[in-house]
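Repro case for the chain-ordering regression, as requested:
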Amino acid sequence: MAKPTSDDIKTLIEQFDQSDWKEVHVKTDDFELYLSDNPNSVGPPASNTAQSSVPVYQNVESSSAIRTPEVTPPAVAKPVLTEGMSGVTAPNLGTFYSAPKPGAPPYVEVGQSVTAETEVCLIEVMKLFTPVKAGVSGVIKEICVSDGQMVEYQELLVVIEPS
Amino acid sequence: MTIKRVFIANRGEIAVRIIRAAHALGIETVQGVSLADKDSMASKIADRAVVIGPAPSRDSYLHVNTIVHAAKATGCDALHPGYGFLSERAELARACEKEGIVFVGPQAQVIEDLGDKLRARELAEKSGISSVPGSGHVESPAAALVAATKIGFPVVMKASAGGGGRGMFVARNRDTIEESFERASGEALEAFGDGTLYLERYIENARHVEVQIAGDGRGNAVHFGERDCSVQRRYQKVVEEAPCVLMSNVLRKRLHKAAVKLVSSLNYSNVGTVEFLFDVECDEFYFIEVNTRIQVEHPVTEQVTGYDLVQMQFRLAAGEKGALPLQGAISISRHAIECRLNAEDPYNKFMPSPGRINKWGPAKGAGVRVDSHCYDNYLVPPFYDSMIGKIVVTGNDRLSAVRRLQVSLDDFHIEGLVSNLPLLREIIAHRDFENNSFHTRWLEQDLLPAFESAKKEKE
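-- result from build under test --
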């Protein structure tokens, strides 16, 4: 395999970033790349050819200099998804609306059954409203944000127990 | 009015710099980050960080609507755009204005006028600043000869549609006009599908000199002296210093006056930089453009004037009384030099080299300032500019600053990441740099070929 170009690597990283994979480990004779979504990752599984010609990520598994980065707790504790549950996350930063218009009944309520196509909320950015769909069929377990609250990109909005 | 909370629409070292300046003034900070920058230093030191989008800039740092929405929703009354990204987009300044958010920068109209390079040249002309003498379009070698005679030799032929040095040929006298024309036109046609050319006076020994200015938006403006940024690669600055000791006091005064006159005629608000080409042989300067933002190299000016330019940006944006110092209060003393540290491989065509920094060992000591967002175990993401920090040293004079920089660069150590440190060491240790005898093409024409061949010999 030819040595990948920086564009190859960039593409790989972008695709990894957009995927739901936890880690990627690519290795050829003179190239090694390890990607992980875990900031505390200690690197790829130890291998017998640790000396890679690519400086990026090399020595990651052996270095004792690594310290766990200090993670500042977020201003507000963000809900996390428990095992077996499915989450609907914000497709972009914006304002969360639980109902199609003020005073109208909400799109969904806890305990309600939904299909993948059911709209669960609206996200607004500068007067541009985007409906967000459930993505899976199941039962709404939790609505994590309140009406009119700003949500960040990929913030957990709704928890669904898949059926 | 006062600013209570600012949204930082940028990343990297400048975001860190802005947050610290804001905190020093008692302003709260909200840092907008992409998903890739969630664990960045700016994200950690800001009072609050919000994820504005995915890693690619176009969906995060370049997304005007999302940024303004985030600023509003987090209760910010001001927005600082830093440099690069949206900093010179009139659209962002307008959107802020519409939403009642103070944009920490010049007025939208000023950004727009100066962002249009031809319009900027006209405005400069009106203030009596000339640009490099040039011609309009030339269609034939005969027309080129007429234009060249008018401008004066040597001239450079440039492709109208061009950029990046392609389709550029120098004619030193009338005998070489025809040949240069044919070659430039041929290459322009091949590279850009358009063989149209124009001529400019070719300045052999040029320096890039720029004046730091600030204005209060009511026609009052002052300067903070000049910077010399002549060590460049592909029009990217690598080393910057203040002041430009090569310039005579007479010319320097004229330069400062020209810059101040231009920006005060526009009622310029906030800080900015007027860039010039300094023709050393002819002892003359020519207008290039105005940058309507804080610049990467602003620290060298801070070091020699003692003013904190980012804090000044906030105070000017808030319309604070006395935010603009009197010209008489600003004086230049000592000498400062800055180097840009990049995650790129100078031994391999300057390929970007993002990755994890296992150990970050910045230079330290008296007269040494490092502006950076890096720390041990920081992952330099591959999505953005490769700059990872700036090393700024200050000395009593240029020579002592050069010596201090040489030592600082030797002290600097980065583990796990390839950087341009070896090249920076080579530049600052070079006799030409120490002797201050170089020009804007020196790095590319003289130093880099030697740097590369020395590396081959070693192998």
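Ordering looks correct now. Chain A touches chain B through 35 residues (CB under 8 Å).
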